[in-house]
């Protein structure tokens, strides 16, 4: 049996893995020159897959219709150090994939590669982002590697265990970074308090000397 601390850590890891592995489905609207960016906190060496589909607003019907094939989407991904990971132009509907190499916040930006196709109109973009083993198409893996159903299930479980380990390492990394920031902040607050105390003491000493000189000049003491 596991002790209370280990059990709590294991449960937290599974909950975190479930939350992160859930597919983030959403849609948003962009204008001609608008750029939409999203932030994903991702562990290192983790695969991310994004699937998107665009629809063009039709002012006659008041709805959104299938976009012209001339419309494309530019996808730009940057890591926590603001280094480019992916920068490519895709069609009106497609999939982009990248792998993180640095843990932390990754910025995913999408915008249209052209404005002439929907001048003055809105473009609706449906976006699904999958992180970790949820980004893997196991049907393709099974077909490519000729895996049986049991072998495929074992492969999925191994990938999930590996992802749990990555998530735990990332949480430890965040805790270390937070502790370092807290210690640095506490040190600065301490030195600032000491500096304030020294300034107040110096001002008090100066005021006492000034008052003493004033009274001596007035011959009050």
Q: What key attributes describe this structure?
A:
221 residues, Jelly Rolls, 2 domains, 5-stranded antiparallel sheet, 3 helices, membrane
Topology:
Layout: H1 4-21, E1 24-30, E2 36-42, E3 47-58, E4 63-66, E5 73-78, E6 84-90, E7 93-99, E8 104-112, E9 123-131, H2 138-145, H3 149-217
Antiparallel strand pairs: 1-9, 2-8, 3-4, 3-7, 3-9, 5-6, 5-8
Helix pairs in contact: 1-3
Explain how this protein is built.
The protein is of the alpha+beta class. The chain folds into two domains: about 110 residues, Jelly Rolls (Sandwich); about 50 residues. Helix content is about 45%, strand content about 30%. It is built from three helices and nine strands; from the N terminus they run αβββββββββαα. The strands form two sheets. Strands 1, 3, 4, 7 and 9 form a five-stranded antiparallel sheet that branches. The chain has a four-stranded antiparallel sheet with strand order 2-8-5-6. The chain is elongated. It is found in: Membrane. This is Transmembrane emp24 domain-containing protein eca.
- Can you tell me the overall shape? elongated
Low-confidence stretches: 4-23
Tally of distinct domains: 2
Order of helices and strands: HEEEEEEEEEHH
Structural class: alpha+beta
Mean pLDDT: 78
State which percent range the strand residues make up.
25-35%
Looking at the overall shape, the CATH architecture of the largest domain is Sandwich
What is the fold-level CATH name, i.e. the topology of the largest domain?
A: Jelly Rolls
Characterize the biggest β-sheet. Answer: 5 strands, antiparallel
- Would you count the extended β strands for me? 9
The proportion of residues forming helix, as a percent range, comes to 40-55%
The number of distinct helices, counting runs of at least 4 residues, comes to: 3
Distance between the termini: 82 Å
Instruction: Tell me the Rg in angstroms.
Output: 29 Å
Keywords: Coiled coil, Developmental protein, Membrane, Signal, Transmembrane, Transmembrane helix
Domain GOLD: 35-131
Protein name: Transmembrane emp24 domain-containing protein eca
Coiled coil: 140-167
